[in-house]
Amino acid sequence: MPNIQIKTYQEYEEAYKRSIDDPEGFWSDIASTFTWRKKWNTTLEWNFEEPNIKWFKGGRLNITENCLDRHLKTRGNKLALIWEPNDPKERFVRYTYRELHEKVCQFANVLKKNGVKKGDRVCIYMPMIPELAFATLACARIGAIHSVIFAGFSAVAMSDRINDAQASIVLTSDGLNRGAKQIPVKRVVDEALEKCPSVNKVIVVERLGWAVNMVEGRDVWYHDEVQGVSKDCPAEEMDSEDMLFILYTSGSTGKPKGVVHTCGGYMVYAQYTFSNVFQVQENDIYWCTADIGWITGHTYLLYGPLLSGSTSLMFEGVPSYPDMGRFWQVVDKFGVNIFYTAPTAIRSLMGGDIDDVLSYSLDSLKVLGSVGEPINEEAWHWYHTHVGKERCPLVDTWWQTETGGIMISTIAGITPMKPSHAALPLPGIQPILVDTEGNEITENEVEGHLCMKFPWPGIIRTTYGDHERCRLSYFSTYKGLYFTGDGAKRDKDGLYRIIGRVDDVINVSGHRFGTAEIEDAINHNDHVVESAVVGYPHDVKGQGIYAFVICKEVPEREDYLRAEIIETVVEKIGKIAKPDKIQIVSGLPKTRSGKIMRRILRKVAEGDTSNLGDTSTLLDPDVVDEIKAGAL
Ligand code: PRX
């Protein structure tokens, strides 16, 4: 492993200081530990006005040479990937670095054979099977831009994303396993593609052995295509700032946007943060439970571990199948040393029988991680005590799709750890808190909006096809700063605690949705005139979705209507965005200018209607009483 790992608190302080005093020298030294076909000319060029951010300009590389080829000499026979299926009775599969290299090259050759070229956008809609990892890396191998779409999204959500990226090909599977259920993935793809003229090829991986509809001239089976294909595929030489991937994520307005990451900076940042935060050692078995359809899966299941030459475990299943002990059974089965999951999973397991945890030894664990949403103190302590046996540092890692990698987090065993606190910024990261006017708050024991004042190599470069949207979303709220959309506190010791979103984004089980996006889906239902969606505290999901809905006429059966509205949301977005509560109302609290006062709705949804603040400016103050009375 290249020597970029901080070992002591003093080394952290030194690295942090240098990263501020001489960011270019700091990152340049780290970047030098990678394999470049040609070294960069300029380490950093940037302004946050446009924004224009370029790291390692002029550098030439391929990220897969760094993930795979460079390990072959020293780690060829080391395990790169362990795949554990949904059903514990099915056999797991292991791939050494040499085998993974071959699989990726073969997949890359299949893509080439099917007409995929450098710069093409490839949509990947696949379950958590090894081929998802091969496919993603195969795109990077040939310089195609991957856009992985989580396989729980609906056909409509998929077609929106495909059309935005103008993808020419879709990589998918016949179906998928999820706990006791089997889901027909290919059917969703077929439906999506009815509205996607840019797609002319579909490659289908067999997972369930189902007979699926194959469109003549468009659809091919992977197992047919791979016959006789070479296990060697030279890597395409890429520029540091060439696009590596697009990943769609929700913001406070409009449709999800395609966050763009580029080859050089993302690579450097993914490995630096992976190696440091988890303090990974050469023989560790590392398990990140995230799906590759989310940024956590991109950076910390796939790229970060492979760049580091580590062994990464990929799990097809869910924490509750066949029983609530499944995670811990897998930890014991493979001797997992580092375990990274989301608070929502911890909270759902806390609800089970404690024996589901205590029946496993969990002796192999050394470091635990949390990501995706604030981890409440109760869940933090349960995780630390029952899983980590109070022996393992628990790192609460704060970051975003847009940041590419972890930004604020305890470095396991090295920097301070405090329940529910992400704690200190990593070297190279310069967070600040600002008030609503954008003035920096410099003291401690304060709360404010979390911004970054200097770029890091993993920062978002643009939103695909619409650079202005990137500027407006992240760089225009506070001049000269990247605005995260999160509120945070800083305690007396300077440790950060992330409170949650301050914009109209809700975080359900660690998944982001814009309230506008869900409202838009609900409004597609024929009975609905208007809707307003807010988040509310939910025991397991972190936030639940509460929808206030105005209908054309008073429904005879509210339960039927609710079911129909849920169906509409499932169709437009997917099951993951199902409203938890739907209240039918005759009006919404609006100001005279027509703006919905969400503050009031949030209070109602939280069940706290004692003090709704000033409602005198509302167009129709009476509607508030009705909403309060009908609260669910
Ligand atoms: O609100 C923060 C929350 O998740 C948002 C980013 O979501 P996404 O882009 O989907 O990425 C999730 C995985 C990196 C942030 O704006 N968030 C993420 N991690 C934490 C968190 N909130 C509190 N604590 C965290 N550790």
Automatic annotation (TrEMBL):
Domain AMP-binding enzyme C-terminal positions: 517-595
Q: Which InterPro entries match?
A: Ac_CoA_lig, ACAS_N, AMP-bd_C, AMP-bd_C_sf, AMP-binding_CS, AMP-dep_synth/lig_dom, ANL_N_sf
Native source species: Pontibacter amylolyticus
This chain's protein is named Acetate--CoA ligase
Q: Keyword set for this entry?
A: Acetylation, ATP-binding, Ligase, Nucleotide-binding
Domain AMP-dependent synthetase/ligase residues, every copy: 69-455
Q: Record keywords: Zinc-finger included?
A: no
What are the residue boundaries of the Acetyl-coenzyme A synthetase N-terminal domain, all occurrences included? 12-67
Q: Which Gene3D superfamilies match?
A: 3.30.300.30, N-terminal domain of ligase-like
Superkingdom, according to UniProt? Bacteria
Q: Name one Pfam family in it.
A: AMP-binding_C
